[in-house]
Design a protein that fits this description.
This protein has 344 residues and is of the alpha+beta class. Helix content is 42%, strand content 13%.
Length: 344
């Protein structure tokens, strides 16, 4: 104790050193146990990775063969589907001279105008290519314009067969080549689309026939985008529209009413005049008491009953006799060259 009192600094330092050593021992013991646990976990994970690397990967042989077969069948189905659109996939759109394009455009316009016959056409009708009445097309755009022109011609020929009463408007959406541009399809595009709008006036049957013709055309593939149909009459039929005209003969107007019907006592239509002449004759005695017969033979067949004509205008109204104004926007699809599908 005297030494501690005589050397307070040394004794204090020794006490602090012992205390720190005890703390470090406790911490080392605790951290050593955590390290051991971490080392065991690492060894287990490492063993699992090493085992996985040395084991064959999934799927198993059966699953791998099944997937390969499914991919092959899917690829073949896509190939068959692609072949269905080959008729609508031009091998090459070659450009022609601007004057040759104008000549073909004039010929197509004349053919379509002749097909419409008496159908009223828009003023200065030119298949939607009115710009090229007074100017020539760009040489680099003639190939694309020619495909678009043939598609519009095919659509309008189908409309001409539907016999509308009037063709009101034909609007063609210009292509980039006309302005000196170029069309670059996206990697996932399968077709290029040329838009066109047609507005016409006609019956419900003509509208149906035209829409059916767009789906039945073999030369081009049409996709209907928008259809708008507007009735000529915006109000429903009224009671006052029922105007049944009745036309009867003078005999029908004078003849008294027959509760059993006018044809109840009439001879059938199949009775001929010869059959009427063969009926028994009536005999009348003469003044001298003789049996001189006075034959009274019918010389004409009975008259048919009065004819009645009914126009039934109200039925025409209900069934839709009014005309329709039809707007149709459709695309002409030019399918791009098919791509080789990757093998499974």
């Amino acid at each position: 104790m005297n030494w501690i009192k005589s050397n307070p600094f040394v004794s204090g330092l020794a006490a602090i050193t012992l205390l720190l050593c005890g703390i470090l021992f406790l911490l080392a013991s605790k951290w050593g146990a955590q390290y051991g646990e971490a080392k065991i976990g690492f060894d287990d994970a490492y063993l699992g990775v090493t085992t996985a690397e040395s084991t064959a990967l999934y799927p198993t042989a059966d699953l791998r063969d099944g997937k390969s077969k499914a991919l092959t069948e899917h690829r073949d189905a896509l190939g068959d589907l692609t072949k269905l659109f080959d008729p609508y996939r031009p091998e090459k759109t070659e450009n022609i001279t601007p004057q040759a394009f104008t000549d073909r455009l004039l010929t197509a316009n004349e053919q379509v105008s002749t097909a419409f016959g008496k159908t009223m056409l828009p003023e200065n009708f030119f298949l939607g290519f009115e710009t090229y009445r007074s100017q020539l097309a760009k040489p680099d755009a003639t190939g694309t314009l020619l495909y678009q022109m043939d598609g519009i011609k095919a659509a309008l020929m189908g409309l001409a067969e539907a016999r509308p009463s009037a063709l009101l408007k034909v609007l063609r959406v210009p292509v980039p080549e006309e302005m000196g541009g170029n069309s670059q399809p996206d990697p996932n595009d399968v077709a290029r689309f040329f838009s066109c709008e047609v507005t016409f006036k006609g019956s419900e049957q003509s509208a149906r026939d035209f829409l059916n013709s767009l789906g039945a055309t073999d030369s081009h593939y049409f996709i209907i985008r928008t259809v708008s149909i507007k009735n000529e009459r915006q109000t429903p039929p009224q009671v006052s529209d029922a105007k049944f005209e009745t036309i009867a003969t003078e005999e029908a107007a004078v003849a008294p009413a027959n509760p059993f019907g006018e044809a109840f006592f009439e001879l059938p239509d199949a009775v001929l005049e010869s059959d009427v002449a063969a009926l028994p004759t009536a005999k009348e005695p003469t003044a001298a008491g003789g049996d001189t017969a006075l034959e009274t033979t019918a010389t004409q067949a009975p008259k048919p009953p009065a004819t009645v004509q009914d126009t039934s205008r109200i039925l025409m109204q209900v069934l839709g006799s009014e005309e329709l104004t039809v707007f149709v926007r459709f695309d002409i699809a030019m399918f791009l060259p098919s791509k080789e599908l990757p093998k499974p």
